[in-house]
Write a structure and sequence with these properties.
CATH architecture of the largest domain: Roll
Bound molecules: flavin mononucleotide
Number of domains: 2
Strand content: 15-25%
Mean pLDDT: 93
Structural class: alpha+beta
CATH topology of the largest domain: Pnp Oxidase, Chain A
Largest sheet: 10 strands, antiparallel
Number of strands: 22
Distance between the termini: 21 Å
CATH superfamily of the largest domain: Electron Transport, Fmn-binding Protein, Chain A
Shape: globular
């Protein structure tokens, strides 16, 4: 990181040094930024971060940042690790640091870059920023994709942070979609039951760590902002919001203060919005119906603000992020007492791979079932694949090879019914999605050499990873090997 901490900008300065940022000019906020982002994610291996500037209809400097941590190098930099850290190590380190670093509470400061520009009351206009419409059938423009919403529990004083989509209905009115059971929503409901609006702060761009921890699920009462400090190794500077008293990260790019209105007082039709499974899923939680709104009281932003775009992309796009949730799962499996875990990777919330070094009969089944029980694997899943230690769980080609050569479907696929699921599951029948119960079934693929005769399993005719590394080293000046 740069010597002087400056949130997202410190991170971007480091990325630029490694040639990891491409500036794109003249793109249109209406579908084109989304289309470029998605094409790059699908087609370019280890893609650069995309900094959109001079966006149609907007002044130079009002920027949008897409896929900030979609390469291994940038993910390492965001986590404060050396850029050469291998992918699986990165996943593992991220999780163990999130879990193990001692939390450091934020430090209140008088002011900071976020206060460079202030809009109050009637001046508030989120369309001052190039708010995107990402997909053709989206019901509007969404400012909150890469956001962090902060609110305070009125009963305990605990300050929560979470990421939830936010539609820009009007210059000073945002729609908010929070899934039932989300902690941010539980807090809001405590205000609403007293007939009161819930004070909120939301940021739309800032340090990648703030964003990572914003969407990571922690137990209620465990502060995400304290964990950001722990990961940074220093307290996060925050400004006491003049209206809400809530903490506003001082180096954020764009922030608002406002009130999340009780639904009995005000709601708006929200969505539809192309969601993470890759569909416009509708149903129980009213994906395109009335949802709560935030009445904005103030907007703050830095000079030349950078709006973070994290609009969901088609989940098959292989390069849109390095997923570190797998590392959290790794920790959870070990905490549950599953030995011999060699790696875990969440390719998509609906496809989780765990590699084990088989140690005894039943070990693979223990690992597969433990994934379904662990916090990270319990919700939203579909397929769990257990592989041997020679398979890199983050490499889908290797995983498919294991599935197609080590699974006998009759014996090695286990179906588990009535598992915890989200109404966003596109395969959930409409009446179940609308009325619950929100459960689905899972398949566990035991793509491992069968324990009983694993030593007789045919030998592999592939060169070893060390041999391949030696070839790359020797011939990288002659052949265009990708830098991984
Ligand atoms: C890009 C992105 C967008 C998200 N959008 C939503 C959303 O619209 N609604 C929601 O309930 N959760 C959403 N999530 C998941 C939550 O951020 C996540 O479950 C978080 O842990 C919630 O925090 P909380 O438990 O403190 O409420 C999103 C996650 C990411 C990474």
């Amino acid at each position: 990181m740069a010597a002087e901490y400056d949130g997202l900008r410190s991170f971007l300065a480091e990325c630029e040094k490694h040639g990891e940022v491409t500036v794109i000019k003249d793109a249109d906020w209406n579908l084109e930024v989304g289309a470029i982002t998605e094409s790059v994610s699908e087609l370019i291996d280890e893609p650069p971060a995309l900094m959109f500037d001079e966006i149609k209809g907007y002044p130079k400097g009002y920027r949008v940042l897409s896929i900030p941590t979609a390469s291994r190098v940038r993910m390492a930099l965001a986590l404060g690790l050396p850029p050469e850290t291998p992918r699986m190590e990165l996943v593992r380190h991220a999780a163990s640091r999130i879990k193990n670093v001692p939390p450091i509470p934020p430090r209140e400061v008088e002011t900071g870059p976020i206060m460079q520009n202030v809009m109050r009351d009637n001046e508030c206009d989120v369309f001052k920023f190039p708010v995107l419409k990402s997909h053709r059938l989206d019901g509007g423009r969404y400012i909150g994709t890469g956001d962090s919403l902060i609110n305070r529990d009125p009963e305990t004083g605990y300050v929560n942070m979470g990421t939830y989509r936010m539609q820009a209905h009007e210059g000073n009115l945002l729609g908010l979609w929070m899934s039932p059971g989300q902690q941010g929503r539980i807090i809001a409901e405590r205000y609403w039951k007293e007939g009161k609006p819930c004070p909120v702060v939301a940021t739309f761009g800032g340090d990648p760590l703030v964003f990572f921890l914003s969407y990571t699920k922690f137990p209620f009462g465990m502060s995400e902002l304290d964990r950001v400090g722990g990961m940074l190794g220093r307290p996060l500077d925050v400004i006491k919001g003049p209206i809400t008293g809530l903490p506003i990260p001082a180096h954020a790019e764009i922030a608002i203060e406002g009130e999340l209105m009780p639904p009995s007082v005000e709601t708006r039709k929200e969505g539809p919005f192309g969601e993470w499974p890759g569909y416009y899923t509708q149903g129980a939680t009213g994906m395109d119906d009335e949802q709560p709104v935030i009445r904005i009281k103030a907007i703050y932003h830095r000079d030349n603000p950078i709006l973070l775009n994290m609009a969901p992309q088609w989940p098959g796009a292989p390069h849109h992020s390095v997923r570190f949730e797998g590392g959290i799962l790794w920790e959870q499996l070990e905490a549950a007492g599953v030995p011999g875990i060699m790696g875990t990777y969440v390719h998509h919330p609906m496809m989780i791979v765990v590699a084990i070094k088989q140690m005894y009969a039943g070990h693979a089944k223990q690992a597969g079932m433990a994934v379904l029980a662990a916090g990270t694997g319990a919700r939203n899943g579909r397929f769990v694949v257990v592989v041997d230690e020679d398979i890199d769980p983050s490499n889908m080609d290797e995983v498919v090879w294991a599935m197609t050569t080590r699974v006998d479907p009759k014996d090695d696929i286990q179906i588990v019914e009535n598992c915890w699921a989200s109404p966003l599951d596109p395969r959930m029948p409409p009446d179940v999605s609308a009325n619950g119960p929100h459960v689905n079934s899972r398949a566990i693929f035991y793509a491992v050499r069968p324990w009983a005769w694993k030593d007789q399993f045919p030998k592999v005719n592939r060169i070893s990873k060390d041999e391949m590394a030696a070839v790359v080293k020797k011939y990288s000046g002659v052949l265009p090997f990708p830098k991984r």
